[in-house]
């Protein structure tokens, strides 16, 4: 099952998602069901992909929505300030229950996603439109966001399209993978 640095999740065939904190070999708490991701609460949408980073986990649903939980530090969850402020705390918030990540797109329809990938403190989501989005933080250019110079902060607190070379729409993203502090996107020329 996919795991982040400090926790793991498992999605079962009928849409049930279970989580377990701490991945040590000692006996620990039994996995618990993540009720917020139950298909009966999501108009039948089921979890189709789970991916974990450092202190955060992402869930891709069959309806193309991305849900996140974990530590909101440095924009890892991609949630707007208003959502985090509604939790009544200053600074980073620990979201124990997964929440929907609202992702803006240039089209009138909300973005629909087909894949997710996690780095240590950042995240990628590949849209059905073949646009790649990233959010979170890194200073080593692994997010694909422009920085003034190598090593500068390229943090994005909410999902932001990754700029591609050439004219807009010249490239489409076929796949993305990341581990730790590096990433790779497979881009193909648009027909």
Query: What's the N-to-C terminus distance?
Result: 36 Å
Q: Count of DSSP E strands?
A: 13
The amount of beta strand, in percent, is: 35-45%
Estimated structural class: mainly beta
Q: On the 0-100 scale, what is the average pLDDT?
A: 78
Helix content: under 10%
Radius of gyration: 17 Å
Q: Give a short account of the largest sheet.
A: 4 strands, antiparallel
Helix/strand order = EEEEEEHEEEEEEE
SS summary, helix count: 1
Low-confidence stretches: 1-7
- Basic shape: globular
Which sequence of strands runs across the widest sheet? 4-5-6-7
How is this structure best described in words?
This protein has 191 residues and is mainly beta. The chain has 1 helix and 13 strands; from the N terminus they run E-E-E-E-E-E-H-E-E-E-E-E-E-E. The protein has one helix at residues 81-85, and strands at residues 7-11, 17-21, 32-33, 47-53, 56-61, 66-71, 94-100, 113-118, 122-127, 132-136, 156-161, 171-179, 182-189. The strands form 4 sheets. The chain has a 4-stranded antiparallel sheet with strand order 4-5-6-7, with no helix packed on it. The longest helix has 5 residues, at 81-85.
Gist of the model:
This protein is mainly beta and 191 residues long. The chain is built from 1 helix and 13 strands.
Can you lay out the helices and strands and say which pair or pack?
Layout: E1 7-11, E2 17-21, E3 32-33, E4 47-53, E5 56-61, E6 66-71, H1 81-85, E7 94-100, E8 113-118, E9 122-127, E10 132-136, E11 156-161, E12 171-179, E13 182-189
Antiparallel strand pairs: 1-2, 2-3, 4-5, 5-6, 6-7, 8-9, 9-10, 10-11, 12-13
């Amino acid at each position: 099952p996919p795991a982040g640095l400090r926790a793991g999740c498992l999605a079962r065939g009928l849409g049930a998602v279970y989580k377990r904190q701490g991945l040590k070999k000692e006996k620990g708490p039994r996995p618990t069901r993540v009720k917020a991701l139950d298909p009966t609460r999501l108009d039948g949408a089921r979890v189709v992909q789970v991916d974990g980073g450092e202190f955060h986990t992402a869930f891709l649903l069959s309806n193309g929505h991305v849900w996140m939980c974990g530590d909101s530090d440095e924009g890892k969850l991609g949630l707007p300030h208003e959502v985090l402020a509604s939790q009544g705390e200053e600074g980073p918030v620990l979201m124990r229950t997964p929440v929907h990540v609202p992702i803006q797109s240039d089209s009138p329809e909300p973005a629909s996603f087909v894949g997710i990938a996690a780095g240590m403190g950042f995240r990628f989501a590949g849209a059905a439109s073949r646009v790649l989005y990233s959010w979170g933080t890194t200073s080593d250019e692994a997010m694909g966001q422009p920085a003034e110079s190598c090593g500068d902060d390229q943090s994005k607190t909410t999902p932001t399209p990754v700029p591609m070379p050439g004219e807009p729409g010249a490239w489409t993203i076929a796949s993305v993978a990341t581990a730790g502090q590096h990433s790779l996107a497979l881009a193909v020329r648009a027909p």
